[in-house]
Amino acid sequence: MISKRTRNWILALLFLGWSLGNLDRYIMNYAVLSITEDLHLSASSTGLLLSSFFAGYAIMQMPGGWLADRFGPRKVLLAAVILWSIFTGLTGAAWSLASMVMIRFLFGIGEGGFQPASSKIISLTFPKAERARAMSVMLSSGGIIALIIPIASAGLLTTIGWRTTFVIMGASGVIIAALYWFFIKPPKSSSEGSITQTAVSGQKGIFSSLLKTPMVWNLVVAYFCIYAVNWGLAAWIPTYLVKTRGLDLVSLGWVQTIPGITMLAGIYLGGYILDKLPKGRERLAGGFACACIGILLYLMFTASNVPTFITYQTIVNLFIAFVMTLLPAIVLKQLPTSVTGTAMGIANTGGQLAGFITPMAIGFIVDAFNGSFYAAFWMLIGFSIVCIGALLTINNKKGDLLKQNEEEALALEA
């Protein structure tokens, strides 16, 4: 195992890269207000634009995870940062809905390998007892960006404009790629990885073994549901508050910093709690959190005024962040290191499909209901209920072929 100082340095760089990726995704939810006017888009077209990134991102999850397991996470990480930097910059050059959708789709393809590869690096460099907290640090970048982006976007979009903003972010990615090239060098193998890889190779392959593991399918469904809620809110709350609740862009920026604080707190707190919870209790904690999410979503859309709405949004972000930290922690702590890249890619495909489907679905729903968001909120409540079922039915002892293979490999070596 590498030194603690080196582990923390690698984690800091992963955090930096993930922050830039989240910056692009979150700022689009605010930039789309100007893009909609410049490109004359309807709510349905806006939903398609917001979803296009996630289409490419979802498609690349499983290949990205497999490539990280097969060729090493460092190569995949570098390729992901370079490609997403190119297409982030090109976002500022889009001239029509079709060009914007294609650029954002290719941007999603480029970034798709980052999370599986970075998760693989965490599993190689951190002991099991520290992986949930390490993952929470990386994921906390989303909370930090969600905290600062409302104010930052108001300043950037009203001064230099959305086109220049995306060009600058693309150039920043090139710098991060250079840092990764020089400083991220995780171990190439581990004893756990070599044992499990030998066992898995006797099967039909990593994918078939993982797809026969019931826990993986529970995770796919849970990922889909929680990210449907997260990206449904993140993509449309700015538009909802401006068009339905009457806020201007600057006021919107300030009020949305409050939910960002609890998103960040939920991620850090989640990582700490998950490393302390006894094995098997994660699903109960996750089910409880999803129940709270459903209740709070109902209270949000029935709130009589903006301060009450923001109060409920602030609390719901705490529980969303906890579940979003819980899911990758289950992968990192309960599956062998040699397949964490592929497993994370499979599970996270569900989350990114939700990112593709939900913003677009909400756009069509809003058009169908003459600008009303009520039906969209009910859809998100339904996802939180399904997520409860997916988490509570996780059974680590039933059909876990990977762990059986690992035990058989150990017995043969003995």
Written account of the structure:
By secondary structure, the protein is mostly helical. It has a single domain (4-404), classed as MFS general substrate transporter like domains (Growth Hormone, Chain: A). The protein is 85% helix and 0% strand. The chain contains 17 helices and no strands. It has helices at 4-39, 43-71, 73-91, 97-111, 114-125, 128-159, 161-183, 191-201, 206-211, 214-243, 249-255, 257-276, 282-301, 306-334, 340-368, 374-392, 401-413. It is globular and about 50 Å long. The model is unreliable at 190-204 and 406-414 (pLDDT under 50).
CATH superfamily, by name, is: MFS general substrate transporter like domains
Q: What overall geometry do the principal axes of the alpha carbons give?
A: globular
Unreliable residue runs: 190-204, 406-414
CATH A-level architecture: Up-down Bundle
Record keyword descriptors for this entry.
single chain, 414 residues, mainly alpha, Growth Hormone, Chain: A, 17 helices, 85% helix, 0% strand, globular, disordered C terminus, MFS_trans_sf
